[in-house]
Amino acid sequence: QVQLVESGGGLVQAGGSLRLSCLASRTIFSINPMAWYRQPPGKQRELVASMSGGSTNYADSVKGRFTISRDNAKNTVYLQMNSLKPEDTAVYYCNAVYGFRPYWGQGTQVTVSS
Fold first, then answer.
1. pLDDT of residue 84
2. pLDDT tens-digit map of 71-96
3. How far is CA 99 from the centre of its chain?
4. 33-44 b/e (C-beta count within 10 Å ≥ 16 → b)
5. Which residues of 75-113 are buried (b: 16+ CB within 10 A; e: fewer)?
């Protein structure tokens, strides 16, 4: 079992940056994939970025602006978000697949003002 706790969300102006963190309750060295999803108001949850081993994958809407990374020593996955746009406003969720089961954090709100 894995508990995930996100942090780092907040209110930012368009063009600004935020870094989200996802702290796992166990070592993430063997947890693959790990990912960030988001759910905009009134919309379905969507994949933002994922990483498995040395490979990363990004939604077209965030390519070149967002970067997913991990620090195995800190059991933490990050999402660096630059050049934020109002359409990036959403609740962002950390996701991990462990033992063939998906685990989710509670989410962190990101609001981008125009």
1. 98
2. 999 999 999 999 999 999 999 999 99
3. 20
4. ebbbbbeeeeee
5. bbbbbebeebeeebbbbbbbbbbbeeeebebebbebebe
Q: Give the Cα separation of 88 and 40 in Å (integer).
A: 8
pLDDT digits (tens, 9 = 90+) for 39-69: 999 999 999 999 998 899 999 999 999 999 9
Which residue type is seen at 23? L
| One-letter amino acid of 25 | S
